[in-house]
Amino acid sequence: MSLVITLKDSPGAPGRSSPTIICDVCEEEIKTAGEGMYEWVSEAEVDGRGRATVYFAHTGDCSWESKRRGRSSSIPLVALPAYLLRNLGCSLEESEESADNMGKPL
């Protein structure tokens, strides 16, 4: 699973730590949710606790290569935040408020 922290420059905040998703096929950043998928091997890779490793791939050639490697299940990356928020019992508003407050003095 290639979810990493990278240092990115943004207006007024050079070198800010930023969660970034890297394609497990080409090893390049997936820059927008619309250009990526998250994928896993259905039942074959599920461990004894009902968990499977998640992989990320760009749509198109990278996703086809990922499927060739046996990752049979996939969902557009744009859906991942909604699933995570639901599973964590968190609303979008709570998440955005927390993110907006990061780095502000207490």
Commentary on this structure:
The chain is an alpha+beta fold. It has one domain. The protein has helices at 61-68, 80-88, 92-101; strands at residues 3-10, 13-21, 36-40, 55-58, 73-76. The strands form two sheets. Strands 4-3-5 form a three-stranded antiparallel beta sheet, covered by helices on one side. The longest helix is centred in the C-terminal third of the chain and has 10 residues, at 92-101. The termini are far apart. The model has no long low-confidence stretch (mean pLDDT 85).
Keywords:
106 residues; alpha+beta; 3-stranded antiparallel sheet
What's the layout of helices and strands?
Layout: E1 3-10, E2 13-21, E3 36-40, E4 55-58, H1 61-68, E5 73-76, H2 80-88, H3 92-101
Antiparallel strand pairs: 1-2, 3-4, 3-5
